[in-house]
Amino acid sequence: MSRRNRASGKVEGPAGYSAGLSTSGPSQRQLRVGEEVRRVLAEVFGRTEFRDPALVDAAITVTEVRLAPDFRHATVFVSRLGRSDVDVLLPALKRVAPWLRTQLAHTLRLRTVPELHFQPDTALDTAMHVDTLLRLPEVQRDLGKDTDTTTDE
Fold this sequence. Notes:
The protein is an alpha+beta fold.
């Protein structure tokens, strides 16, 4: 029988076990399975066994995999080494997604292999943009830092 814990507001099952209704982020199992999916996909991309001509010579890096709570869908964040044009590869990745699911099924022991959805990873581009903004003289002045660090006193 489920009940709501007065202190935390969470719905609890028998013996105080949480029913998984928390929105605090992914569970440990989601993180662990996501990392295993990322590792297997990185190995497959490293072997470059694709029949699709758009992916034959593409150096693709899998940076992160986020799994849905039901493990039926996985968002795979990809980038290209040394290039920022990963968007042109997304249609090709969508075409080979069923083959990639088969490769995951052969390697991982999961009840259901997640459906793969590919997204470009823009975290590095965003970090470089923020770094550029933080180095602007106006921002340095507002932060109270002296931009001329080579004073001879």
